[in-house]
Amino acid sequence: xxxxxxxxxxxxxxxxxxxxxxxxxxxxxxxxxxxxxxxxxxxxxxxxxxxxxxxxxxxxxxxxxxxxxxxxxxxxxxxxxxxxxxxxxxxxxxxxxxxxxxxxxxxxxxxxxxxxxxxxxxxxxxxxxxxxxxxxxxxxxxxxxxxxxxxxxxxxxxxxxxxxxxxxxxxxxxxxxxxxxxxxxxxxxxxxxxxxxxxxxxxxxxxxxxxxxxxxxxxxxxxxxxxxxxxxxxxxxxxxxxxxxxxxxxxxxxxxxxxxxxxxxxxxxxxxxxxxxxxxxxxxxxxxxxxxxxxxxxxxxxxxxxxxxxxxxxxxxxxxxxxxxxxxxxxxxxxxxxxxxxxxxxxxxxxxxxxxxxxxxxxxxxxxxxxxxxxxxxxxxxxxxxxxxxxxxxxxxxxxxxxxxxxxxxxxxxxxxxxxxxxxxxxxxxxxxxxxxxxxxxxxxxxxxxxxxxxxxxxxxxxxxxxxxxxxxxxxxxxxxxxxxxxxxxxxxxxxxxxxxxxxxxxxxxxxxxxxxxxxxxxxxxxxxxxxxxxxxxxxxxxxxxxxxxxxxxxxxxxxxxxxxxxxxxxxxxxxxxxxxxxxxxxxxxxxxxxxxxxxxxxxxxxxxxxxxxxxxxxxxxxxxxxxxxxxxxxxxxxxxxxxxxxxxxxxxxxxxxxxxxxxxxxxxxxxxxxxxxxxxxxxxxxxxxxxxxxxxxxxxxxxxxxxxxxxxxxxxxxxxxxxxxxxxxxxxxxxxxxxxxxxxxxxxxxxxxxxxxxxxxxxxxxxxx
Length: 770
Fold this sequence. Notes:
Distance between the termini: 33 Å
Number of strands: 9
Number of helices: 30
Strand content: under 5%
Shape: flat
Radius of gyration: 31 Å
Helix content: 40-55%
Low-confidence stretches: 1-39, 146-153
């Protein structure tokens, strides 16, 4: 097995450097090596890079648009910030590329002055743009893409000089972030034998642990925001009682009788019914991933996911469930008469993104494009609308308006059977002043009228943009960064930003293709991103060049941990949570404590995570570091030496000097070795005992110890530890621990010196950021 893994490791990342602490991008998985010629691009990719950006957008677009002087010609472009601008403008070129005049392609003859052109000569015959346009026409007329159309054109130089986490550091990040634990000894052994190839195997297992699904739920609630309805009866009250008369049965006067006189069942229903309805879409996502179903089912599932309590809300009998008391038992259910389409027909999704009689589902269509196709239809440049030239029903007939509405309105029409409350109601007719339901200029078949969202879901998931959109969602969830956008005219270094945007776009496209090729297995996306340089960057060698610095800033080398991720990290390293008492709530994950102040969201009023640290967050970090250090230091010393996480090689009685002030070299060596261990355990850093980082920690320990020892002697400090910092009882049970293991006194002030070091390391940016 080791031999096989070693061979795979060579294939994936190259033998040289795979075990080094830091790597440069060309040796890491996921980065192309060498330049790819223009001929190795698909036609549409070549169009965007060689024709559209340099020529059509800046030169032709001024007249050949829906309101320009060439608006009545056969060649009309949509603005670059319009929905699907590149494919739509590519289609516009396709429609004229086969026309000739006197043996010259018309689309080349006009701008080059070979024939009459209202805009005059705008293209020099011997220019690079002329050659690119001719090559584009030749590509179109050959009716084939280049043979290597699927080859990646990622730019390997993007990560030149960027220090990347090695396999061991990447594994540590992954297990803490995705599984809430440290790597096991077995995993580290396998990684040591197999490098990157072994990491792929390990990640496959990590991504099946229960803790991973907690991360998955967070990532997709950050998108869908349906946790808005988790409190009280908010979800139940949104359901149409005319459609679901039992929605709030557990709160009605006869609830006790309807629960068959079972008070426990009634209490469980009041506790879990609202939560299950609110989280229906999120539970569906988790169910699909847990059961290795194609991720396209988040839209195409012809069922909903209910537990015994949400089933009762929808009028489904509890006999379908093995245990009617179990809120974690979920079943695939097809509600009678409902043509389910995964998330799209979830009542809470439809309520979270509502419609009105005048909006006509356009808001829902906008969300579909944004979430599941990666296209924000509201990202339009501000441009004046000439009201005098507008026509009757401008959203349908006026090019100033229908540039967007011809994309949005057909998808809005696919929601025609779902009303303002999210209930299924087939209208008598859809609005005749809107484009008919459809997608990408394809009208929905008449026979799909009552199952319009099922038809739309199939169309969306067949589109490669769906794959890329999901990759972007997972990237955002793991990194905390928004995917890059094309540079604007205001960018100080547009060329550098453009290169970076192109590299990231190519990378997302490649991962999207792997996602589809692997049957839409979402774990493929997680594994690709976790091991990619986009998420493994830990530092740079030189950012003195301003343009390069702008690129690196856009990459986002480190990202503050979310409150949930920081909470998981604390539990993974210490096994104790940060909370006021064992039965209390975790400070970092409860909305009534520090969750919102530390950048979290409530899915209601606050829907964007705060990613830029502020003074309040810094104060929370300091309180966390001090209180956690107080909690864990004495407790770790109280454990058997082979069970200690923090201090396996030292005791509270160990001091570096004897009573006469002479250095005890062995003890100082042990203290330094412990500092090396703590840096490795808490920060994932490997240092020698004489490294500057260890020297700084040693000086801190020594100064705190000396000052505290002298204060105890002078009776300025008590010899006993503060009550909260003692080890006298078991944390969870509160039962007294054996007297010989208790840590109460600290007359030598060593325990408090070690507390200072723990607090110091917990405030290190390498602990708080990723």
